[in-house]
Amino acid sequence: xxEPQTLHPSETSPIPWSEIPRTxxxxxxxxxxxxxxxMLGVVTERYQTHGPVVRQKQGPxxxxxxxxxxxxxxxxLDRDEIFSAKRSWHMIMGRIFTNGLLxxxxxxxxxxxxxxxxxFRTPALESYLQGMNELIAATVDEWAxxxxxxxxxxxxxxxxxxxxxxxxxxxxxxxDRSKLNRSFExxxxxxxxxxxxPIPGLEFNRGLQGRRYMIELFQGLVNERRGTxxxxxxxxxxxxxxxxxxxxxxxxxxxxxxxxxxxxHDTTTSTLTSMLYELAKHPEWQERIRSEMRGLDKPxxxxxxxxxxxxxxxxxQETLRRYPPLSTIPRVATESFExxxxxxxxxxxxxxxxxxxxxxxxxxxxxxxxDPDRFGPGREEHKRHSHSYIPFGGGxxxxxxxxxxxLQIKAVLFELTKKLRWSVPDGYTMPVxxxxxxxxxxxxxxxxxxx
Length: 451
Hints:
single chain; 451 residues; alpha+beta; CATH 1.10.630.10; 5-stranded mixed beta sheet; 15 helices
């Protein structure tokens, strides 16, 4: 396993903060318009220009970019508990996704994660899948009747939101979700806003309005669900108790649900859209998955089937490598530390980039090529380093819903490949916005063919 790269390996004393390479004002201004659309290009240029440790100034906050899987492992495992997810994410999204699970540290984080974990254990996932299968089958039947241009991102997002509303919130079908969808879109966009003022017409203010709408909606649901039976995640959360019989407060439930709903339907939408694009560009893989799903010989996918589709798993892994839903992971150092021969002071924002690590030629062969077999037997490139592949983060903050997300994706692919073929025009390349969550700028127009 490779050792951390140092800037001056011949020196014995650490390089002081002031001497670590730093991005210039000119660089920062040149990169600012590109950061959402081409995060990978920006940080790759930063890495190639300055090396594995790069200082930045972001307003009053000092930042350091760390590159490579060794840095990922150090930051995510956080063995000395000196990196705060709460402080970093609070600056980015604290006023929008207040006190979500990602915005908690230490024992407080562990306590809330234990209470929420019950909603993502195997018996719960099995019950969710039954409800999702019915919705997915009906939705794909509707898609099969589509005529003309089919904008995959928007249609998948509608379906993912409906799945989240039923599975997470226990809401009945048929209700208009458009306002809820707009609220989530506004809150996610606001997390990347440069001007963070509650001024009417600004992106950040629309995010605050979206949050207020969801608080009002979820408070009404808390009042309904306390003390009732239900298999949806919201009701489970309303009635979860710790070892001493204590329940989450109303506001804690609301804060968790706003964050979980965003994470559930936005990240699933992102991954499914990217995967449909790659399977359209690589029809041989579309056929491999279709053959595998048909080989199950069942009217609907079952929970025990999810490990019996190895080609599908490879394609999902490769999609998450090329298009990680979260391109950036920040932390704030609560103590000074040394890394790669450099001295990093306390209160510095420390940032790693999964999207960059996933495309490093040092760890991946032809990293810009869609090649699911790289994860398969005989190659297993993701095992070259424990933290070269981190689509779901790692350590104590590893995504709580990753098994739920993978289950959703496989259930959708089961129905899609059974009923449809899809394609894009020759020469088409999907224009991707890489931050805050990967998505196509054009909605990904597909041509559908009923089988």
